[in-house]
Amino acid sequence: MKYRDTLLSPELSAERSKYVSLVKERISGTGVLAFIQTFGCQQNEADGERVAGMAVEMGYGLTSDPAAASLIVVNTCAVREHAEKKALSSVGQYKHCKKQNPDLIIAVCGCMASQEHRADELKTKYPYVDFTFGTSDLYMLPELLWKRLCGGKRMFLIPQDEPPVAEGIPVVRASTYRAWVSIMYGCNNFCSYCIVPYTRGRERSRCPDEVEKEVRGLIADGYRDITLLGQNVNSYGRDCSFDCNFAQLLARLSSIEGDYKLHFMTSHPKDATRELIDVMASSEHIARQFHLPAQSGSDRILKAMNRHYDLEKYLGIVDYIREKLPDAVLTSDIIVGFPGETEEDFEATLDMLRRVRYDMVYSFIYSPRKGTPAGRMDGQIPEEIKGERLRRLLDVQTEISNEANHRYAGRNIRVLCCGRSTNDPNMLEGRTEGNKIVLFEGPPELEGSFVNVEVTDTRPFALYGKKLK
Ligand code: SAH
Ligand code: SF4
Ligand code: F3S
Question: How sure is the predictor about 3, in pLDDT bands with cuts at 50, 70 and 90?
Answer without folding.
Answer: low
